[in-house]
Amino acid sequence: MNSWNYEVFWKEMLNQIKNSISKEEFSMWFNNISYCSSEENTIVLSVPSNFFMDQVKQRYLPLIKETMGELSGDKINISFTVTKKNIKEENSKQNNIEEIKKHPDLREDYSFKTFVIGENNSFAANAAISISKNPGSNYNPFLIYGGVGLGKTHLLQAIGHAVHENSDGKRKIVFITAENFTNEFITSLQKNKPHTFKNKYRSLDLLLIDDIHFFQNKEGLQEELFHTFNALYGAKKQMVFTCDRPVSELKNITDRMKSRFEMGLNMELNPPAFETRLAILKNKVESLETPIADDILELMAQNITSNVRDLESALKKLIAYTELVNKKITKEIAQKQLIDSFTTSKQGNISVDLIQKKVAEYFNLSHVDLRGRKRTKAIAFPRQIAMYITRELTEYSTTEIGSDFGGRDHTTVIHGIQKIEGSLKSDPTMEATINNIIRSIKEQSSK
Ligand code: ADP
Ligand code: MG
Predict the structure, then answer these.
(1) Whose CA is nearest to atom 25 of ligand 1?
(2) Once rounded to an integer, what is the mean pLDDT over residues 402-427?
(3) Cβ(142)–Cβ(128) below 8 Å
């Protein structure tokens, strides 16, 4: 035995960590890390993939280092090596997890394990993980908001999976879209069975409702939800919601419902940066039979910036093409095949700056004036058009738009947008004007 053998510390560390994190989390991550060897002041661990390694580093490296340091009394470096698992071992592991029956409302692939944590989502993801360990205790309700395709539904369901597995399938969990929740409620009224609905939802351990912006303008439903909310909240049962915008921007939702949505923890998901986009792609292709080269993944991550859903559909397109032609694809082929995805994505990611430039150009004003604080009519009107177009072409909230237009309040932005909506109705030339500007913005952004 050489003098650098840290295996015993590693084993002891596993024992300690086992007590400090959930069963599910432990089996997800630590059952897949094995001790490999020791070198001077370094322990080498083997992990099944690069993706897995990155995620373990993000989540646990400080904890591992600290615990190993305490146990050994030395500063120990952690180094990883990627060893592909043999299939037999993988299967037997999967069989173990299979013991608990899958929850019928949840998509199998929407778990924490497949969710890549990056700077855009780390607050929301870590809050989700923490809530799934102790549902109903802190942060009730938890609300995740953000634009399309950023992982709201995925995270919501991941909480469901984790709670389901941690409780060995014993907790009563419902995942439902706001739309289906509404339909179910209406059906229960039509069938004269409102109690069945009430009893079902008010006795849950965990209620997950996706896309609550759908509840806007639905008064009767909000009334019902209000009572469901109070019943669950009073019984310390966890609720998690998703929404496509901050709660403050919802319209036609009663104040008492809004304040309930806001009283726990609200977290935003932002579009992922390049590194995270690349990590997501790498994770997705890891299980493929025909791998896709890194330079192609980088090309995709560079060009598709809008959201994860667009990234995934581009990848699916490329995989379908590869299977069809049955040959290895080059960067040139990928570029050609994905040209549509690349341009739509860019259009989905138009900057406020570009909109301001194009509007200023159209009205022959200076860009600086348009985004500044001057209030003369000659500037105010084009500025309102620019705000309107920003709202049409981007995912920015009115608060964000306000800050990009001279630090204005979101109510000013809403007012400006409403004025343009008004003139679109009364002035027939308005639509053509706006369409012309939009066209020039899109042309510029897809170059
Ligand atoms: P939203 O509900 O916000 O519109 P979804 O949760 O449906 O978005 O996500 C769109 C797609 O992108 C899903 O297939 C989801 O699995 C994937 N996705 C989103 N974020 C991530 C992430 N951080 N890691 C892995 N996959 C992700
Ligand atoms: Mg969704």
Answers:
(1) 115
(2) 92
(3) yes
How far is the centre of ligand 1, averaged over its atoms, from the C-alpha of 152 (Å)?
7
Q: Which residue has the tokens 């997705």?
A: 284
Going by C-beta distance under 8 Å and a sequence separation of 6 or more, which residues neighbour residue 423?
430
Residue 51 CB less than 6 A away from ligand 1: no
Convert the pLDDT of each residue in 359-413 to its tens digit: 999 888 899 999 888 888 889 999 999 999 999 888 788 888 998 898 899 999 9
- In the chain, the amino acid numbered 158 is A
Ligand 1 centroid from CA 115, angstroms: 8
The arithmetic mean of pLDDT across residues 207-218, rounded, is 96
Question: Does ligand 1 lie within 6 Å of residue 149's CB atom?
Answer: yes
Beta-carbon contacts of 366 under 8 Å, excluding residues fewer than 6 positions away, are: 360
Q: Which atom of ligand 1 is nearest to the CA of 148?
A: 4
Residue owning the nearest CA to atom 19 of ligand 1: 151
The secondary structure element, H or E, covering residue 361 is helix 352-362
Segment 417-438 mean pLDDT: 89
The pLDDT of residue 91: 43
Ligand 1 pocket test: which of 154, 269, 311, 315 has the largest number of ligand atoms within 8 Å of its C-beta?
154
∠ Cα 199 247 239 (to 5°):
30
State whether the beta carbon of 396 lies less than 6 angstroms from ligand 1.
Answer: no
Q: pLDDT value at position 418?
A: 95
List pLDDT tens digits, range 65-95.
999 888 888 888 999 998 865 444 444 444 4
Q: Distance between CA atoms of 140 and 237, rounded to whole angstroms?
A: 8
CA-CA distance, 85 to 15, in Å (whole number)? 23
* Element counts in the chain: helices (H) and strands (E): 21, 8
Q: How many whole angstroms from 381 Cα to the centroid of ligand 1?
A: 38
Identify which of 152, 284, 308, 345 to mutate to test ligand 1's pocket (most ligand atoms within 8 A of the CB): 308
Question: What are 15's two structure tokens?
Answer: 């024992």
Rounded mean pLDDT, 208-216: 96
Tell me the three state secondary structure of residue 236: coil
